[in-house]
């Protein structure tokens, strides 16, 4: 596996200065940097030649994706299939995907909606409820279709009303069976107690639910989804590698909570968990770009009709699938860590899940492109993250062998 940088110069952006210190494990994979044929002698010539820069990385996977169903799925699926080889597909439909038979049916719907010739592989997830049985976990493992179980605390986010109310009480037998079956638990890490401040919901979840869960079942593989705080970083890195990991979204790497209010209320920057302070954003960037194998790509791309975002009670969710790879590359470049991008996008996830890494490649070229204002679907439009902005990195649409 090789990460190649072909360029006349590397960007001279300054390194981010994190406000906290984190371990810097040595990268697992050696990086080879290919020197340019004609080395520039000045910074000006280096900047001028940066338009020819290319990154060739192993084709990534998305370990946290919302595809919805119906017309919306048909519209958004090609955006993920274009850049990602596999994706863990979230089960919070109406009704939720709570059984293996429903997961198989949902997978069939996704496969039928794929563009002709696509090699995209959906990895299905069960929606954990208070009444999920250990037997269902056995069936799921045998199916070869279901790869994880998702914990939504009841009422935590979109379509989570059927979620869990007592994880260590009502769900313990299921969790014990998941240990036996080596089935990862994917956690939406927020408490739903209305007395807890919205910006503290992740921190309190770690203290009251996640830490006791890890202590009770240390062999359970857990992915803390879409982490947003320094508290989550500290917790993940306090846990044993290979048992606790985290996915990170482009919005939580690039935006802080000011993005919700700049120039007026910005509904298309509203997601759950909600954006946090700049100190938390910097902590996450520092952790993700450190080379630690406990973090991997999970966009949490969540499409909603524009009308459902721009209304009196807007939906939570940011649609990032078309721009995600461009934005992740931006983050890693800004801190001088492009050599660590491939492990985050393409290696750490499959290694944690015990799946083979992809063998095909994808090329990201430094070719500025403008994000469309909207993407149309059957009866409406969806507004993407970074709508109308110009991004520097353009991923290729076709895999390269």
Explain what you see:
The protein is an alpha/beta fold. It has one domain: Metal-dependent hydrolases (TIM Barrel). The protein is built from 13 helices and 15 strands. The longest helix is centred in the middle third of the chain and has 16 residues, at 201-216. The chain is globular. Pathway: Pyrimidine metabolism; UMP biosynthesis via de novo pathway; (S)-dihydroorotate from bicarbonate: step 3/3.
Shape: globular
Supply the number of helical segments. 13
Q: Secondary-structure element order, as H and E?
A: EEHEEHEHEHEHHEHEHEHHEHHHEEEE
C-alpha-based Rg, rounded:
20 Å
Sheet with most strands: strand arrangement: 4-5-6-7-8-9-10-11
Total tally of structural domains = 1
Residue windows where pLDDT falls under 50 for at least 5 positions: 1-52
CATH superfamily: Metal-dependent hydrolases
Broad structural category: alpha/beta
Q: Would you give the CATH topology?
A: TIM Barrel
- Give the DSSP E fraction (strand runs of 2 or more residues): 15-25%
Query: Percent of residues in helical segments?
Result: 25-40%
- Major sheet details: 8 strands, parallel
End-to-end separation: 12 Å
Identify the CATH class. Alpha Beta
CATH architecture: Alpha-Beta Barrel
